[in-house]
């Protein structure tokens, strides 16, 4: 790739001008400046940035600076209209081509493209399979190709889209047009696959820090998940927008109904719903303030609603990658947000069972097992969760973040060797002496010395271990079992989730291996002062400014409704907060607020000043 060095200086000046005038931002963030500069000069780029890091600007600004139309490949057809609306609100000329359009709409956009009347064109990847689209692109001038959600090219990832494989055509047909591939998926394996499959060997790589300082990570023991969720929302996120993830369609439906009955408006989202309902629920989530969506992992990719204040997991995700992507949908606007999860013994049992019965060969199952083990290690850690997450993505940090549950309330570890020996020897006696296998519940009953019908039926009250565990409570034994499973000192098998020993169990039983366990704190305090400080883009809101902020939010809702677009497209929360704090008295002053560009100032400026005048 030849880069035109002489245009770099001019390029970055023009980029800075566009950033302020069109987007209303003072400065680029993180790697944005370097990326934009590189692409404007005609270089290829691979951009790895966490969700909320600001990937869109990396191709939007160069598209506005370079001559021609920026072509954005995106798999998210359902969101293209919103993306185009958001750009139009900024005064950027944008259009899209996908299968959801009527032919005449499509022809209009095609004509605009050829005439050079667009700045950005969004395209579904499958379009490029048709020679007609390729010829269309050849009739206009393309300034750059942006390949969004580039990890969709990875065959082993969970978002694989076969159409992405066809994107190698871009480089073949347009060798001189710069390409920028972007993703929030961070592992090295995915990165290498993107480079290989999209022929990006010569591209410059930009790898940002994957830390999301404004997200508070918390993982708590699961008792009654729906009740815990409700308490959490009421205590910390009443009236906020949030996403709740559940494993099954059934629990999605139940949880959404439970929340709604209890005064938290929630809608379900899963693959079993018909297309209309799904689209309606997604669109309500994007448009209304403070709606909760309860969903399977089918929901979320590409949802760039910036003010999602919490992401809750009621079931254990299958991998740290999944957990990180899902939680990353909180707080794109940089304001404090919570990633909250409950997790219990049944999660481990269920996930291990799913792996055992999964299709695919032994190597595949081994892979799933490794993913789950990493996830369990994150759940059971006694050190900083954020540190552990970053280390997983190859960015070890080493310090304590001060904004996760283990930092806020350090859990104690305790010497669980004797407890582990009791549990394991109960399993051993059943297995080796009697050839029997039982699930965790029954074994805990034996340890607690409960003479219930099942115990009596099998004469388990005659076992030597009967009643040796009365020093711990039922929930504590379940915690011990869960941690032994997580540490691989115990295994679970079959449909009934029976417990069996592992090779490592012998080390505990017979070779004096010590076992350290995590004692869960009773309650985790909600917010910390450091949390707010760490969220860099937060404009601290004085309590006195809250009523004004609420007024501005009402104005925004009404305005968005009138124009039939999501509220955040008018202005996002961060911008409204800054307005409430600074109370600008003139259009010129309002124009200096972050997020207020030329077009929005012209469109909404008077309206905002009126609200301020009334206050
Ligand atoms: P990503 O696609 O990486 O998840 P987005 O492009 O959606 O992130 O950006 C996340 C949020 O950050 C958006 O609300 C966007 O307006 C804001 N943002 C991005 N870059 C900047 C910047 N340089 N200054 C201020 N806000 C920014
Ligand atoms: Zn921490």
UniProtKB/TrEMBL annotation:
EC number(s) reported in the record: 5.6.2.4
Gene Ontology molecular functions: helicase activity
Keywords of the record: ATP-binding, DNA damage, DNA recombination, DNA repair, DNA-binding, Helicase, Hydrolase, Isomerase, Metal-binding, Nucleotide-binding, Zinc
Domain Helicase ATP-binding: 36-204
Residue ranges annotated for the Helicase C-terminal domain, each copy included: 225-376
The name this protein goes by in its record: DNA helicase RecQ
InterPro entries in the cross-refs: DEAD/DEAH_box_helicase_dom, DNA_helicase_ATP-dep_RecQ, DNA_helicase_ATP-dep_RecQ_bac, Helicase_ATP-bd, Helicase_C-like, HRDC-like_sf, HRDC_dom, HRDC_dom_sf
Obligatory cofactor(s): Zn(2+); Mg(2+)
Reaction catalysed by this enzyme: Couples ATP hydrolysis with the unwinding of duplex DNA by translocating in the 3'-5' direction
Pfam entry (one): HRDC
Gene3D superfamilies from the UniProt entry: HRDC domain (1.10.150.80), P-loop containing nucleotide triphosphate hydrolases (3.40.50.300), Winged helix-like DNA-binding domain superfamily/Winged helix DNA-binding domain (1.10.10.10)
ATP-binding as UniProt keyword: yes
Signal peptide bounds: none
Keyword GTP-binding: no
Stretches assigned to the HRDC domain: 542-615
Similarity comment: family membership: Belongs to the helicase family. RecQ subfamily.
């Amino acid at each position: 790739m030849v880069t035109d060095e002489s245009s770099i200086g001019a390029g970055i000046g023009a980029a800075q001008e566009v950033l302020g005038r069109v987007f209303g931002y003072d400065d680029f963030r993180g790697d944005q400046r370097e990326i934009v500069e590189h692409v404007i000069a005609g270089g290829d780029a691979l951009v790895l940035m966490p969700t909320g890091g600001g990937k869109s600007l990396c191709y939007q600004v160069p598209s506005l600076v370079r001559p021609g139309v920026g072509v954005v490949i995106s798999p998210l057809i359902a969101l293209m209209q919103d993306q185009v609306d958001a750009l139009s609100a900024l005064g950027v000329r944008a259009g899209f081509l996908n299968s959801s359009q009527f032919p005449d709409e499509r022809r209009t956009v095609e004509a605009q493209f050829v005439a050079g009347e667009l700045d950005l064109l969004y395209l579904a990847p499958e379009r490029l399979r048709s020679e007609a689209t390729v010829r269309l692109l050849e009739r206009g001038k393309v300034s750059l190709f942006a390949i969004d959600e580039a990890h969709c090219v990875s065959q082993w990832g969970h978002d694989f889209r076969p159409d992405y494989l066809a994107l190698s055509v871009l480089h073949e047909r347009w060798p001189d047009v710069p390409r920028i591939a972007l993703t929030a998926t961070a592992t090295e394996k995915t990165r290498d696959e993107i480079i290989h499959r999209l022929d990006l060997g010569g591209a410059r790589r930009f790898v940002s820090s994957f830390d999301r300082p404004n997200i508070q990570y918390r993982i708590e023991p699961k008792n009654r998940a729906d009740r815990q969720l409700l308490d959490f929302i009421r205590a910390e996120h009443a009236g906020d927008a949030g996403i709740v993830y559940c494993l099954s369609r059934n629990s999605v439906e139940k949880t959404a109904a439970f929340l709604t009955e209890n005064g938290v408006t929630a809608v379900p989202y899963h693959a079993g719903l018909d297309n209309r309902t799904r689209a309606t629920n997604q669109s309500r989530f994007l448009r209304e303030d403070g709606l909760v969506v309860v969903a399977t992992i089918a929901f979320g990719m590409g949802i760039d609603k910036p003010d999602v204040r919490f992401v809750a997991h009621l079931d254990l995700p299958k991998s740290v990658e999944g957990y990180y992507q899902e939680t990353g949908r909180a707080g794109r606007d940089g304001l404090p947000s919570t990633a909250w999860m409950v997790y219990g013994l049944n999660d481990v049992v269920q996930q291990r069972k799913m792996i055992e019965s999964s299709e695919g060969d032994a190597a595949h199952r081994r892979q799933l097992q490794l993913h789950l083990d990493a996830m369990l290690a994150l759940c059971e850690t006694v050190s900083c969760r954020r540190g552990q997450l970053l280390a997983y993505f190859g960015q070890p940090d080493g310090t304590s973040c001060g904004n996760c549950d283990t930092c806020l309330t350090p859990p104690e570890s305790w010497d669980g060797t004797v407890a582990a020996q009791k549990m394991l020897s109960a399993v051993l006696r059943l297995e080796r002496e009697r050839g029997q296998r039982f699930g965790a519940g029954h074994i805990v009953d034996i340890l607690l010395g409960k003479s219930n019908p099942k115990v009596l039926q099998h004469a388990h009250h005659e076992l030597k271990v009967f009643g040796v565990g009365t020093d711990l409570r039922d929930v504590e034994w379940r915690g011990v079992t869960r941690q032994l499973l997580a540490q691989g000192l115990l295994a679970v098998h079959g449909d009934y989730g029976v417990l069996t020993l592992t090779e490592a169990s012998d080390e505990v039983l017979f070779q004096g291996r010590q076992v350290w366990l995590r004692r869960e704190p009773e309650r985790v305090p909600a917010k910390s002062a450091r949390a707010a400080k760490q969220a860099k883009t937060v404009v601290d809101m004085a309590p006195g400014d809250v009523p004004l902020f609420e007024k501005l939010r009402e104005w925004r809702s009404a305005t968005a409704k009138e124009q039939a677009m999501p509220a955040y497209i008018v202005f996002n929360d961060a911008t409204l907060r800054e307005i409430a704090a600074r109370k600008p008295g003139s259009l010129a002053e309002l124009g200096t607020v972050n997020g207020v560009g030329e077009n929005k100032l012209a469109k909404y400026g008077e309206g905002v000043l009126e609200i301020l005048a009334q206050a």
